[in-house]
Input
Amino acid sequence: MVLGLLGPSLVLIALFVVGPVGYAIWLSLTNKTLTGFGAQTPEFIGLENYRRLLTSADFLHSMGRTGEFIFFSAIVGQFLLGMLAAVLLTKSTVRAKGLFGGAILLPMVVPEVVASLAWASMLAPGQLGTVNRTLDAVGVTPLAWLQEHPMASLIVINTWRGIAFAMIMFQAAIEGISDDLIEAAHIDGAGARKVFRYITLPLIRGPIFLFLLLTTITTASVFGLIYFLTRGGPGGQTQVTSIYIYEHSFAFFQLGLGSAASVIMLVVVLVLGLTYVRLARVEV
Amino acid sequence: MARQRSLAIFAAALVAAGTLAACGDAGDESDEAKGPVTLTLLEYQEPRADAVEKMLPDFEAAMTKQGRDIKVKLIRDILPDDQFKTKITQQYNAGEAPDVTDYGASFVPGFAGAGYLLDLTPYLKKWSEWESFYPEVRDQIVQPDGKIYALPHEANTQNLFYRKDVLDKLGVSTTQPTTWPELITRLKQITAETGKPAMVLPAGSTWGGGTFGEGFLNVMLGTGSTLYNTDSEKWVVESPGLTETFNLYDELTNNDLLPVEALLNPEPWQPTKYQAFPAGELPVAAQGTWGWRYDWGPEGAAPIPGLLEKVATWDYPSSDGEPYAVSSVAFSYEVSAKTEHPDEAVELAKWLSSGQAIAEQLVAVGAAAPRTGIDDIAPYSSQPTLIETGKQLATSRSFPPRPGQDQIAQAVAEATEGILTGKMDGAAAAKAFAESAKELLGPDQVETATS
Output
């Protein structure tokens, strides 16, 4: 009976999740390519792709860049600003909450390509870009943002895109805290800071770690934004692992190597995810 | 008894079914031989699709005259080069590619090696017009296995285009420079007068494959070093010529002769070839034959009024003091190895590479004929710059596309970007290129040369 009810889901999961992952793992153990003479005779090469990647300066560099991108844009940027926005939206003293919340939600509904093109225009060098024009008005020398500070620019843009998700999760969690607890803390003499530190944060620890888990996974797989704005450049400064995987799989068609890089990324994200779950002591 | 009867009935049914199936097959074959053949032809660039679309009714009429019922369905899938390559590779791999596809010869080695393309060698050997194709063109498209998988219908040469009007005004010599130091002296003179960069030579990652194919390779061909060892079939990733070429990029960058900021931006050809050169503010540009029409012609992306009076070309300077143009096979027709109609597909490719059809296409995209017998056919006959380019093919230098060229192009793009961003000098870029190429291609695909 149970199997009958779960059957359709299990089939779909096996077909669309387990199957592709299994195939990717198999591909990662071969020298499969789509072009060149090697394409006609792919061979099983064991762990050679993994050995090559784990001793490759380029791949390790891309992992480092990915870590930097995740840490600063998702864990620091989105978390802090999302929390700030959520706290402000739960304050009864703050006015125009609808406008404020709407403005923060907007980046989430803008398609990635549109957001990328809009930022490319805003960050254009010289006097062409909106950012430079604005800075010029206050006497700051125009910069070529995507060339001189490419990773910082991407971190700002990804933070901007992700605040809304953090805000929604944290706001819902904060609003779920009983007013009695807050009131009791106030009666005991706790100020706003202490209430936040000792009441709010511990009570929303679950949603916080859930957010960190989800944002780590989604940020590790950000591709379009970076591809459209910098294509991993200049000089590999923004070559995160998703760009590395794309280049090897779809520009050079080295599917074996690209799959091995994907599997390594999957393992890293899994380890991070399990760490978050353990820290949050959330049952998943 | 009953069992025997059942077996007999089963056997009879099997024979009957087999006979019926065989009759059905024979009927289908006969119908197919008589019936119409529909070919699919894929074009991914607008001007090429437009030009070919007009020609297809003539092809169908020509086939009808021969008693063959062949229809062609044109698939217009307008995409940038890299996206097209990704898509067609997947189509080939899935066995779903169109019968005939039109793309650059640089894609061919990878696809031919993978077994995606029909071997055209036996067809071309029997085709009388094949001998009309220039020997340089025929040589360039032979693959490492000695076979031909592409029928070229365009050729290009690449030179250094310059603004005659601007250089005359600045008092800079317009005679052919024979060495790079001679040209650099003139570029410095231009920059000293204008306060702006003097030349655009593709560099960095954002120019894509153009950094290698429209800049780096052209300079490298003048150094006397080899980039690909045809005997060992390996790429030469360390050589004096490579270091010399990276040093040249370094010198051009350090003397503010290249538009560094524009080269690092997405679509670097926009502010350089489409804005500054037409405006006369960046008077020297590495450019190919297509510039006469596609970029700066009356219907091009950035028309220059009075183009032929204002713009002229130099050959590339070289280490040995003998200037040269760089020629390449541009677009060619390829037939899928999985096509159900190989004879008809090859017939289409041959027809489109002959007579009026090729003349119309060449003018539409601004390319030179890869063969004789076209110079007198209108509208090609009224294009002196293209005809002149065709004549240069015999004396130009060239580099046939090789397997792994995409990876080499990527390594060149990264290394030149290191120079543009000031992070590397020429020697460091040469070293970074060698390391990157080795990593991208695999250590067994590269070697070092001392000359």
In short: The CA atoms of residues 124 and 130 of chain B lie 6 Å apart. Confidence is low (pLDDT under 50) at residues 5-33 of chain B. Chain B has 18 helices and 14 strands.
